[in-house]
Amino acid sequence: MSRTDDRHEGPAEALTLDRDDVLDFAGADDLVAAGRVTPPGAEAVRAARLAVAQAALMDRPDLRDLAAPVAPKPVRRRRRLLVAAAAVAALAVGGAVYPVVGLGGDPAASASAASFLTSVADVASEGTATQAPYWKVHKEVVNEDDGQRTDTVYFDRAGRIWWMEPDGSVTKQGPKLKRWPVGKDLLTWRQLSSLPADADALAARLGDGAFAQASILLEDAPVRPAVRAALFEILAAQDGVRLVGTVKDSQGRSGTAVEYTTAPSEFTGKRSTIRLVIAPDSGKLLESSSRTAGRPAERATFLEVGPANHFD
């Protein structure tokens, strides 16, 4: 589909490219001779966007390390970080140009944000699944309802919850079970094991608000490494995600921040901006925060999240 109507107004010469400029690459004559071709599929478009993303990272001296190629290893169909320039050109000859722009009226994912999040997905995929009986979450939260507090909570695979009290004792919490939102469902740890590791299939399970839902799961959900990698890929695919760069969280830990502004709430009509601070070398989510106009900022800082064999 042509996007000519979406261009900004300006001098006519700014909108015109010489044919020889557009087709100035090896193999162009063959592509022209082939005539009009079927528009590229979603996988080809994704690969082209990621190629542009890698190039954009190289233009940021503070982020060039994130664009370094990873060591060769088996990869799933869902991740293709690098494509040749000819592939990008082929997209144009196919009848539509696919720069890193947004669709549906929203700003696009910045090239550098998409590249960073995809590289973190590769890191996350290398994790090891756990057989531990418990999952520990030690975090500090700041919000309007609770003020500032620090909690240590344990969950088992059935969803049962234990709280660690200030004196170090552990108390089981009644009949309530720990569940994580996945689309319209609420799943226990055991049920999370059935989530698909394919990013497209997982995004379909999450439905609307995929960035917010994926962020919640990345905060403290005990999903297997392949699913965690798919969650980062979902973040990378969202139009409007932005790379902030290197920051420090509230504990002084260094990480890379990305931000995303949600669609207006159906209840308040207001948008919220979500910031995630991620450790690029481990794929751990260090901190998440949210800002909404007219409301105090909310923050969760994850001090320790992972498997546990006992309460300590």
What this model shows, in words?
This protein is of the alpha+beta class and about 300 residues long. The chain is about 30% helix and about 25% strand. It contains nine helices and eleven strands. It has helices spanning about 20, 30-35, 40-60, 85-95, 110-125, 190, 200-205, 210-220, 225-235, and strands at about 135-145, 145-155, 160-165, 170, 180, 185, 240-250, 255-260, 270-280, 285-290, 300-310. The chain has a nine-stranded antiparallel sheet, with helices on one face. Strand 7 (about 240-250) and strand 8 (about 255-260) form a beta hairpin. Helix 3 (about 40-60) packs across helix 4 (about 85-95), helix 7 crosses helix 9 (about 225-235) and helix 8 (about 210-220) runs antiparallel to helix 9 (about 225-235). It starts with 18 loop residues before the first helix and ends with a strand.
